[in-house]
């Protein structure tokens, strides 16, 4: 791909924009970020706080520990953390620096019961508004479509900032990615253009995976896989290490993860198995970086059609992307890579997202496991054909089918999952 072309520059921009470090599950962190920004606009610690959140945000906050809170969960905790200790300039690392005194203040603030939560009824999948007040002063911050995408800021009834967004989806940009374009970019890009973001992902996501393997976090899915099946087979190590990263992250580990499609779990899934295979294959640094460029962009390409949040499990998209990158590391042809993607999506697209929680680690493991069958089939010249369920003959049409399934077809499933989770 021509380095001077607009498409090349767009691909670099996408990686720089999307591969951000985040501490903790990104939905509670988005609440902390909005709350911190609202407190800054107000200019004081508020006496009253209202968090208005769409169902998918509520779903993904319910069962994860918010980092640097002393093991606390919930929307109220995330908002309190942002108000008391948040530094909005750190974006998704907004509560990465919290003192013990701030943790104590946070608990006292929560005990006052000043934080109110209500569902957003706008129809947007990702819609978050934090309203704060103290005395006669009030402020609000609204985020739509993405975890740090502030679309409005108000203070005392005056709009201080506003930007447009799609009132139906909250989405901001057209998807310019394609598997053909991604492969071209991954093979030809100047690594200096992507080195910083990829190096950060390698460092951060390796560290959180190591932590999940070393210590007891969550349900210990990663450690259990290694105990049950040993560590001799790269396929076992790949899924165990990816699951271990999620084990740690979902249970309050205070290490940053470089995300993909707004999700730390997806960031772990697109990268950790690829890194493990690169070690096994003794791939060069350049080969690893190019494989990770492929994995990240393919994960983003798939999620562009589905949306940030859905009843469709993002680990499926991320696992599929990792499978394509592993095939790339093995030197397989474009056809094998394409067939691996189709086989993956045909196999695991039925996994639903029932919120962020410890069992995300096991869904990651299952998604990575499906990669091995999909790749083995593709290498033997076997792939599911167009017309087999949601599968289409062309890889791009198959990705579009999955996008339609995740975004449109699973809306009612999404509502039912939330009702079940909230015992409604």
Give short descriptive properties of this protein.
424 residues; alpha+beta; 60s Ribosomal Protein L30, Chain: A; six-stranded mixed β-sheet
Shape verdict: globular
Number of strands: 8
Structural class designation: alpha+beta
Sheet-strand content, in percent, reads 5-15%
Q: What is the share of helical residues? A: 40-55%
Alpha-carbon Rg, integer: 21 Å
Number of helices: 16
Distance between the termini: 52 Å
Mind describing the biggest β-sheet? 6 strands, mixed
User: Spans of 5+ residues with little confidence (pLDDT < 50)?
Assistant: none
Overall mean pLDDT: 94
Q: Classify the oligomer.
A: single chain
Order of helices and strands: HEHEHHHEEEEEHHHHEHHHHHHH
The tally of structural domains comes to: 2
Strand order of the biggest β-sheet: 3-2-4-5-6-7
């Amino acid at each position: 791909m021509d380095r001077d072309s607009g498409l090349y520059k767009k691909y670099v921009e996408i990686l720089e924009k999307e591969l951000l470090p985040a501490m903790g599950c990104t939905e509670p962190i988005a609440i902390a970020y909005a709350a911190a920004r609202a407190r800054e606009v107000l200019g004081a610690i508020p006496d009253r706080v209202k968090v208005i959140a769409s169902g998918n945000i509520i779903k993904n906050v319910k069962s994860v520990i918010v980092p640097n809170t002393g093991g606390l969960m919930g929307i109220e905790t995330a908002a309190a953390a942002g108000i008391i200790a948040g530094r909005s300039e750190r974006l998704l690392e907004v509560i990465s620096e919290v003192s013990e005194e701030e943790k104590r203040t946070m608990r006292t603030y929560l005990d006052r019961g000043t934080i109110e939560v209500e569902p957003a009824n706008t129809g947007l999948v990702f819609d978050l508004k934090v309203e704060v007040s103290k005395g006669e002063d009030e402020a609000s911050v609204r985020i739509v479509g993405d975890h740090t995408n502030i679309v409005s800021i108000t203070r005392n009834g005056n709009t201080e900032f506003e930007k447009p967004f799609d009132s139906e989806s909250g989405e901001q940009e057209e998807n310019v990615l394609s598997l053909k374009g991604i492969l071209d970019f991954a093979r030809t890009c100047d690594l200096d253009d992507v080195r910083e973001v990829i190096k950060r992902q390698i460092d951060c996501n390796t560290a959180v995976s190591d932590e999940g393997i070393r210590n007891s976090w969550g349900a210990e899915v990663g450690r259990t896989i290694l105990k049950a099946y040993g560590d001799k087979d790269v396929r076992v190590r790949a899924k165990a290490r990816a699951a271990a990263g999620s084990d740690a992250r979902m249970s309050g580990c205070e290490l940053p993860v470089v995300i993909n499609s707004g999700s730390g779990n997806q960031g772990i899934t697109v990268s950790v198995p690829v890194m493990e295979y690169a070690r096994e294959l003794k791939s060069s640094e350049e080969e690893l970086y190019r494989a990770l460029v492929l994995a990240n962009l393919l994960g983003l390409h798939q999620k562009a059609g589905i949306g940030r949040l859905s009843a469709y499990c993002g680990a499926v998209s991320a696992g599929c992307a990792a499978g394509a990158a592993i095939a790339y590391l093995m030197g397989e042809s474009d056809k094998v890579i394409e067939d691996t993607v189709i086989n993956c999506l045909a196999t695991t697209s039925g996994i639903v997202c029932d919120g962020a929680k410890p069992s995300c680690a096991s869904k990651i493991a299952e998604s990575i496991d499906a990669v091995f069958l999909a790749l083995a089939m593709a290498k033997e010249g076997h792939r599911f054909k167009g017309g087999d369920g949601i599968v289409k003959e062309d890889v791009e049409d198959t990705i579009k089918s999955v996008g339609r399934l995740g975004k449109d077809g699973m809306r009612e499933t999404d509502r039912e999952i939330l009702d079940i989770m909230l015992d409604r």
